[in-house]
Amino acid sequence: MKPRVAVIQFPGVNCEYETQRALAASGLEAKIFRWNLDVSRLSGFDAFVLPGGFSYQDRVRAGAIAAKDAIVGEIATFAHKGKPILGICNGAQVLVEAGLVPGVSRGRVEMALGPNRTDGRSGYLCTWTYVRVIEPMRTAFTCAMTPEEIVPLPIAHAEGRFLTSSREILQVLEDEHLARLLYCEPGGEVSGQFPWNPNGSILSAAAISNREGNVMAMMPHPERASWLSQIPDWIRGEWGRAKRDARGSIEEMEGAGPGKKIFDSLMKYLA
Amino acid sequence: MSLSDNANTDPRSVEKDEMKVTAICIRSAGSDLVAYSALDTLVRKMSFQDSLVSLWREDVWLLGFATGAQDATETTEMLVERTGVFVNPNRHRHEVIRSEEKLPHGTQRGRGELGIVVWSYEDPEIRPVMVAVRERLGVESLRKARRLTLWWPGFSENLTDPDDRRDVASSMVATLSRAKGLLANPHFQGSFLLEKTCSPAELLGSVTEAEGKVAVK
Q1: Which of A118, B126, B135, B211 is the most exposed place for a label (fewest CB within 10 A)?
Q2: So what's the pLDDT on residue B110?
């Protein structure tokens, strides 16, 4: 039987169907689960994905209102029991606002995804980034990847800058390598500079997980890079080459893209 | 990164520069869905059902002008009425607070004796506003700009003790966990309770003082 994944549909999210499709392509049975359904039905799922979009229209603060929904409380319970929880973009903002990431002190909101700000640049940014995978075997969402692998992924956000006012939390993030995906140059060198780090995140973090590795908040959209046809021709490295080589072949264009590895990892973890 | 990285907006220089500070208070012309959603969240999803009955919100721009420049209030009114930088007349209602006046001023609905001030330490709106006003509109006397959100909670009738009201207001603000706080994430936003009237310059000074105690990484 396929592992079952609930894609949580808050009012205002807009990536739930493509996330469902990407999960299904990795062999998972993905269901859209509305935020106001009976939460007792969540127990039948093996993992949860909070997709991207604008839950509650980003009112008050991105992710702030969804984080207070009862369904997130239920998901937090599953997180503490070890079930995998992935937040993508707005989903990442919800996980951070709910205190699930990094989750050093259980339940405490220990960081924020603040407005983009780097080298004097700010505001919404939609572009492709390169991320480097750190210690992939330590999370449910990177375990099918190889150490130091470089993956191109798209971002589209205005509030994607991981930051914290706590020196202790920053130290934990650094010491325990909880930043699992790092923005980097195409060659793999981690960079804090724009455009490689597009939002000014601390530690150049594109994704941060909890210590156990079963909850991860990531700002890039893997579901928008799950097929080769979604990759721009100009992307540097092996993925750009693969895309260019696939020109003229529908079958090859429908091959796996770099983002699929996130969902393949979840499949591997659950299988 | 330090707070002073906000170019042209370092509030620590307010006092020594002795600027004239005006304020623009801006409200939604129609229903304020942000305030409604915040109230709904606090009452239905959190623990404020017995203490909170209403919540109003206004954005406040604090504008600091060089003292030797043209009248600050006139300039502020010109910026509001002749440009679309701060106010969209189709969406907003506004009032300009002169440098010698006090906030809260007037009888805007919802304003009470206790307000909640929230602002972002590194507000991405400020730089483009400064560029637009100083460089495109030629108002070089504008020295500082700061944007705040001012929330006005309305308390239930049985919550009469000022200390209790203060406790309720405080617990609505800093988001410390799923159950505690909503209006500000203390990792990138500052907040304090506004318990007495103050001039725009005093409000800016309070923001300055609060910022001096934190460092954003």
Answers
A1: B135
A2: 75
Task: Please state whether the predicted TM-score (pTM) of the whole model is above 0.80.
Answer: yes
In angstroms, what separates the C-alpha of B122 from chain A's closest C-alpha? 8
Does B32 contact chain A (CB < 8 Å)?
no
Whether the predicted interface score ipTM is above 0.90: yes
Does a structural domain hold residue B92? Answer: yes
Nearest chain B CA: its distance from A125 CA (Å): 13
- Judge whether B135 lies within some domain: yes
What range does the domain containing B81 cover? Answer: 19-216
The DSSP line for A120-173 is: TEES-EEEEEEEEE-SGGGSTTTTTS-TT-EEEEEEEESS-EEE-S-HHHHHHH
What is the structure's pLDDT at B214? 64
- Number of domains making up chain B: 1
d(CA A144, CA A182): 17
Does any domain span residue B14? no
CB within 8 Å: A76 and B217: no
Catalytic residues of A: 89, 221, 223
Closest Cβ–Cβ partner in A70, A109, A165 for B177: A109
Q: Decide if pLDDT at B4 tops 70.
A: no
Which of B188, B211, B213, B216 to mutate against chain A (most A CBs within 10 Å)?
B188
**Tens digits of residue pLDDT in A24-44:** 999 999 999 999 999 999 999
